[in-house]
Specification:
Blueprint: H1 2-24, H2 28-34, E1 36-37, H3 45-50, E2 55-57, H4 69-83, E3 96-99, H5 117-123, H6 126-141, E4 147-148, H7 172-187, E5 225-229, E6 243-244, H8 248-256, H9 259-264, E7 269-272, E8 276-277, E9 280-281, H10 286-296, E10 302-304, H11 317-327, E11 332-333, H12 338-350, H13 356-372, H14 395-408, E12 410-414, E13 427-430, H15 437-441, H16 463-470, E14 475-477, E15 491-497, H17 537-540, H18 542-552, E16 558-563, H19 571-576, E17 579-584, H20 591-597, E18 611-612, E19 631-633
Parallel strand pairs: 1-11, 2-3, 3-4, 5-7, 6-8, 7-10, 13-14, 13-15, 15-16, 16-17
Antiparallel strand pairs: 8-9, 12-17, 18-19
The protein binds beta-D-glucopyranose.
Length: 642
């Protein structure tokens, strides 16, 4: 294979040489600057230059100007220009900007918003996921951004975890089947200079240290970040940032296995998990990061901390920083206190607690990724391919998202052939989530915790708008449908379920602060509380059952459509409904729901997680294919119309 084998060593050598040359000219301050990632609200372009900052991020919901692609490009232009000034005291090293484009570039107004990962898991379609990666990368590039903190490769083992929706499945095999495809989709086809993947027996994408074997981005690619290393979905009782108690064999089988195809595909960065493994914080875990990920698995990109991830490691901040750097973390997400990080790390190096060789390794890895992804060769963001965005929120991407919605819906019940509905029927559409594009998108959309209502999700369609477009006699009553008279309607579509949430605020557990010293600024006094104490929908949102009952008792067949980031206990709602659809968090293209309700396409999705029938016992994640204690529907369940 001429392309890969003969070219790669040259390319790797070139990257090594360029990174080595730069490194040799860098001061300690410049190297530590590269290792520092502040949040945009806390750093001005002039400071990027002054402190030699390597990367800036947007936390969820942190957006420039009016939050349109042009505002993002202008912001990135200013950071880039500052980073590229060159004089006696400053080296031109382009800044790398990172965002959470975890279901489309969903922070930005007007983006195409794809179903959250759990819905994509239900679709069971790796090729679809790769196409979504490509479309997402184009919408990220449209904002002048080069790096997304995606994919999440968590294997969610407990639906009480507030981040369950970020996981494709409780099944590591399914997550693994997606991992390489999504990484390749986001980063583009470039691999060496040859778009083909290395075949069996050829050198792996991460075959060597110091940039050797780092893949090249495709022209429409962005840097991807596999997260959160590792075991984030396996914490006891599904507590976010909790403790994953597992033997090493189990950790490898359940949580590490999905990383292998992503590493093979050349994912350039990995983010460490805020959780612990058997009581030891991942951010201080030298074995997991240095020995296993970088050593045994040969990961040659760079490792980034999660938000303030070093803070809880020790009472003394300097000591905490030293622990994390020595464990192998290369770049630090230090949103607000980045100056403190810089001075703490500087003292730790000067005092000998962090060896200079570790700093050089970190800086070399960061520079290696910047060279490998072509950042040094790209012009300023405004002049880059795709900037400003003809493709942003375009029709083609929205059609893809709609296809993903169609493939992700899971039909759980269909009594007496209630579905498909007749488009000429008189259909009442109701329920809290019926006409709410914000809620159907869920967390990590425009705001960190997501939004409710339609105003901040321009484009796309609510589920009601999707129904209205094809069923002329349908009517919306979003007040719960109590006023409907039996004779007025042939059927009702009742859209029920959760409101948006993200991270620990989505946990189901005893009340109490989610995270003392929480990462993102709390959005209000209640923001640090978990979602609830039970998975029972009838307790969480009693109005949903009341709405279904009210209609069913009048003899109107109810089609329940559940918006949720995970399986919930729905026995009561299911019993009263004639048909029941798990729609997950479908994103901006609610019309995909109507495509199935009216039978234009058949249902396709299968449960990516077993569905519980009670809070106790919860399925343990291994109960695929068969029933078992606590299971209402096993993983893989899903009805068809035809
Ligand atoms: C999350 C990460 C995310 C980061 C940046 C953290 O709180 O755990 O998944 O990438 O914030 O927004």
């Amino acid at each position: 294979m001429k392309g890969i084998k003969s070219f790669r060593p040259d390319r790797a050598a070139r990257i090594r040489e360029r990174a080595g040359d730069l490194l040799a000219r860098m001061t300690l301050a410049q190297k530590i600057g590269q290792m520092t990632q502040p949040e945009r609200l806390h750093i001005a372009p002039a400071q990027v230059r002054e402190y030699h900052i390597g990367s800036v991020l947007s936390g969820g919901g942190s957006c420039p100007g009016r939050n349109r692609p042009a505002d993002w490009v202008a912001m990135n232009d200013a950071y880039w220009a500052a980073s590229m000034e060159e004089d006696a005291g400053h080296l031109a090293i382009p800044v790398l900007y990172g965002v959470d484009a975890i279901h489309g570039n969903a922070n930005v107004l007007g983006a195409t918003i794809f179903p959250h990962n759990i819905g994509l898991g239900a679709a069971g379609d790796p090729e679809l996921v790769e196409r979504i990666g490509r479309a997402t990368a184009r919408e990220v590039l449209a904002a002048g951004v080069d790096w997304t903190f995606a994919p999440t490769l968590a294997v969610a083992r407990d639906p009480r975890w507030g981040r369950s929706y970020e996981s494709y499945s409780e099944d590591p095999g399914l997550v693994a089947a997606y991992a390489g495809r999504i990484a390749r989709g986001l980063q583009g086809a470039g691999n060496g200079d040859d778009p083909r993947r290395p075949g069996p027996g050829s050198e792996s994408a991460h075959s060597g240290p110091n940039g050797a074997g780092l893949p090249q981005l495709g022209p429409d690619g962005v840097v991807a970040c596999a997260k959160h290393w590792v075991g984030d979905g396996g914490t006891s009782a599904g507590v976010d940032q909790g403790d994953t108690r597992a033997s090493e064999e189990e950790l490898r089988r359940l949580h590490i296995a999905p990383y292998m195809p992503a590493l093979e595909a050349g994912v350039l960065t990995v983010m460490v998990s805020l959780s612990s493994w058997n009581g030891e914080k991942c951010h201080a875990h030298r074995y997991l990061i240095r020995d296993l990920l970088k050593g045994e698995l040969g990961f040659a990109g760079f490792v980034i901390s999660d938000w303030n991830g070093a803070d809880p490691l020790a009472d003394d901040y300097g000591e905490a920083v030293a622990m994390a750097v020595n464990a192998g973390i290369d770049m630090f997400m230090v949103p607000e206190r980045w100056r403190e990080f810089i001075s703490a790390l500087t003292s730790q190096v000067e005092g000998g607690a962090v060896p200079m060789a570790r700093i050089d390794d970190a800086a070399r890895r960061i520079l290696g990724v910047k060279f490998a992804c072509g950042l040094f060769d790209r012009p300023r963001p405004a002049l880059r391919r795709g900037a400003g965005g003809r493709r942003f929120g375009c029709r083609e991407h929205r059609a893809l998202a709609r296809e993903a919605v169609r493939k992700s819906l899971v039909l759980l019940k269909n009594e007496n052939g209630t579905l498909p509905l007749d488009r000429d029927a008189r259909i009442l559409v109701t329920g809290r989530n019926a006409h709410d594009r914000g809620r159907q998108c869920g967390g990590f959309t425009v705001e960190w915790q997501g939004v409710s209502g339609n105003d901040r999700i321009p484009g796309g369609a609510s589920i009601w708008e999707g129904v209205r477009a094809v069923a002329p006699r349908a009517a919306l009553c979003d007040k719960g449908g109590a006023a409907a008279a039996a004779g007025d309607f042939d059927a009702a579509v009742v859209v029920i379920g959760e409101r948006p949430y993200a991270e620990g605020m989505g946990d189901i557990r005893a009340p109490g602060p989610v995270r003392p010293g929480a990462s993102h600024p709390p959005a209000g006094p209640g923001a640090l509380q978990p979602y609830g104490q039970t998975l029972e929908l009838a307790t969480l949102h009693p109005g949903d059952l009341a709405a279904i009952r009210g209609l069913a008792s009048r003899g109107i067949p109810v089609v329940a459509v559940l918006i949720s980031g995970r399986p919930l206990v729905i026995d009561a709602e299911l019993a009263e409904s004639a048909a029941f659809v798990a729609a997950w968090l479908p994103g901006s293209e609610g019309a995909g729901v109507a495509d199935l309700l009216f039978g234009d396409r058949d249902f396709h999705g299968r449960l990516p997680m077993a569905w519980p029938n009670a809070m106790w016992p919860l399925p343990n994640g291994d109960a695929a294919g068969s029933g078992g204690a606590g299971i209402l529907f096993p993983r893989g369940y899903g009805l068809r119309l035809g």
